[in-house]
Amino acid sequence: MGLFGGDGQSQGDFKKGLNKVYTWYTGGFIGFVLVLAVLEQMGLPKNWIGYLFLAATVLLYAGIGIMSRTNDAAEYYVAGRRVPAIYNGMATGADWMSAASFIGMAGTLYLSGYGGLAFILGWTGGYCLVALFLAPYLRKFGQFTIPDFLGARFEGNLPRLIGVGAAILCSFTYVVAQIYGVGLITSRLTGLAFEIGIFAGLAGILVCSFLGGMRAVTWTQVAQYIILIIAYMLPVVWLSVKHTGVPVPQAVYGYTLEKVTAKEAELIKDPKEMEVRGIYKARSDAAVEKLKDVNASLAADRAAAQKKLDDLKAANAPAPDIAAAAAALAAVPKNEADARTAYTAARTSNAAKSAPPIRHAEPFPGKDEAAQNVARKNFLALVFCLMIGTAALPHILMRYYTVPSVREARESVSWSLFFIFLLYFTAPALAVLAKYEVYTVLVNTPFASLPEWIARWSAVDKSLLSVVDINNDGILQLAEISIGGDIIVLATPEIAGLPYVVSGMVAAGGLAAALSTADGLLLTIANALSHDLYYKVLDPNASTARRVMVSKLLLLLVALAAAYVAAQKPADILFLVSAAFSFAAAAFFPALTLGIFWKRANKWGASLGMLAGLGITFYYMVTTQPWLYKLTHGTAITPEIVKANTWWDIAPISAGLFGVPLGFAVIIIVSLLTKAPGKEIQELVEHVRYPSLDGKTSAASAAH
Amino acid sequence: MKLTAKHQEYWRKNLQITALLLGIWFFVTFVVVFFARDLTFSFFGWPFSFWVAAQGALVVYCLIIWYYARHMNKLDIEYGVAEGEE
């Protein structure tokens, strides 16, 4: 039990012990990878490598969970408040970097170039706000959850309950996306079915957070951070050595970017590429024609498919050809509505493919100045929402309750951003290096000699990767590749021709990223329900043991609910994740910062401000985002509706741009119109503003 | 507990450094990015605006937080509001 903090240990000894444990652990992980690499050379089959990685890492996380099991409230909710700054930084890094950061971000950068940098800026710059406005003060306040602060500062259960609702809203959408990612990686790593993959991963999450709460989650997150950062760095360093001879990709990929830019200019003018894009353009135009009279086009399509089948049968064609023609006939849309959907999809996807490759390094592309200004406005709006959202996500803020002092809380934010920075300044390098590899090695390869990984990934999912010889010249053009963002990181080792063990390690890293974030989120939801709703509102006399038990039970229920939703493969999961940032930004940021920096803010101001911010954010998304619009209105959105409902050309993903200022305005106006908060509240604000007014540690003064 | 003049000065200094660092944060994020299309001169191979958004701004963020922690931890001691030892 001494490994993760026994009783009566001094903080210095504790930290020394941790250093030893994690040094051995890192060495052990590297040794494990090396052993697998040797076994691979000796002929260990690929799916065995996948199984071994999955089993070893999940068992390891479960082992840490069992070693740090606890029923003590302070241990369960805030890891005993003795996590050293640097380890809390690592745990926050893992908590923060989700499947979206690990798998999705380099892909987004690959696909949208400069546009994707909004995520890099937003998801790091937000930590400045955490450091300057929140972390030290929340640590001084020193309770268990974020709604706790709202309840204490704004006197009552109303702000607390709104906080609980908002925390669940953002965390639940986010956790569904993580569990979805877990399922995707597990099924890719081992070949198990997606649903089984979800539940295998879920078992790993649950053993850990169920037994030991925040304490177990903290020490597993540190372990997960170490795995994910090694797994992310290794393939990029390898690629960099291959192309530039320098093992520091972040320092030298500027020159690779220059070469990519030169290649883009070639590809944009290349006649073969233009031919392929022209074919897509023609297909898109054909879909537009069909949309003019859907019924007639549908009848014509059906007749053509029928005729083809009949002709083949009459000519006694080989059975596979006849089967294919029959399948094509069966795939013709059944009715007018289906046909309209199919033609619209064909129009959009073909139009997208007919566009020339984007210029990776060009900021705010657009056909004219107006379009460029809209792109710039949306880029800045997205950065704003992601930053404020970062500084308002409860599962991140909660981590700063676990350090021993205000001093360490400040240092801990510094470490958090440093550990996050390591991955985030590597992602753009990975995107550029992978693009260079695709543009120079893959493009212009004859179809007959394409590398083997292309077929393997196409088999996993056509939407991730597909190559079709559109112009029948037997040579692969760039426009003939359609690639999904999620594949870039996972396939980089194969693109670079590395041994399979590296692919397995990258998948294990992605799994670590998704599991660690899911752990933190589940704990946030369960704590909001058990601590804030059950203990603070429903049954204030509940014993400590009972509260922890209720929390564990809720954790199980929430995890199962999230797994159930993830197994439905909900549409637009990426949008939901980004939406969580806008919601968190609008709901929490104004109330938390004004609560600390403005003594006059009161209960009614905060409650109405949070509701107004959330309300307008939600309203804007519902009226402009296609998927939410259909869910709430029952009919599909049209470009005319989007145009009418859009304010100031802002995309729905950045709805927080309206929610945050409105939240601030409502809190200020309503607070000024209603009674000032009482003397105890003024004193509470003073209490959180000073690390210590009497020379005692905050751990001692926040005895609970 | 009644706040002394020294306490209030500590808080004022805290607000000053917060405002200053927030100003730097705002400048590298929103001002530099706003002019990204005009800042495309080559910087070690990268167009400058691309480099800022991919690395430069991130380094500045790290420095902001590091400096704030260092500065405030010193200020705590100077103004006698630091936490005592356990």
Give the structure's gist in a few sentences.
The complex is a heterodimer of chains A (704) and B (86). Chain A is built from 29 helices and two strands.
Tell me about this structure.
Helix content of chain A is 76%, strand content 1%. Chain A is mostly helical and 704 residues long. In chain A, strands 1-2 form a two-stranded antiparallel sheet. In chain B, a hairpin with a 2-residue loop joins strand 1 and strand 2. Chain B is built from two helices and two strands. By secondary structure, chain B is mainly alpha-helical. The model of chain B has no long low-confidence stretch (mean pLDDT 90). Helices cover 71% and strands 5% of the residues of chain B. A two-stranded antiparallel ribbon of chain B has the order 1-2. Chain B has helices spanning 5-34, 48-78, and strands spanning 42-43, 46-47. Chain B has one domain. Classes of the chains: A mainly alpha (704), B mainly alpha (86). Chains A and B meet through helix 6, helix 10, helix 15, helix 17 and helix 28 of A and helix 1, strand 1, strand 2 and helix 2 of B.
Q: Count structural domains of chain A.
A: 1
In percent terms, what proportion of residues of chain B is strand? under 5%
Cα end-to-end separation of chain B: 22 Å
CATH architecture field of chain A: Up-down Bundle
Average pLDDT of chain A: 87
Question: If you average the pLDDT of chain B, what whole number results?
Answer: 90
Reported for the largest beta sheet of chain B, the result is: 2 strands, antiparallel
Low-confidence stretches of chain A: 699-704
Strand-and-helix sequence of chain B, N→C? HEEH
Q: What is the CATH topology descriptor of chain A?
A: Sodium/glucose cotransporter
Net shape of chain A: globular
Q: What is the percentage of strand-forming residues of chain A? A: under 5%
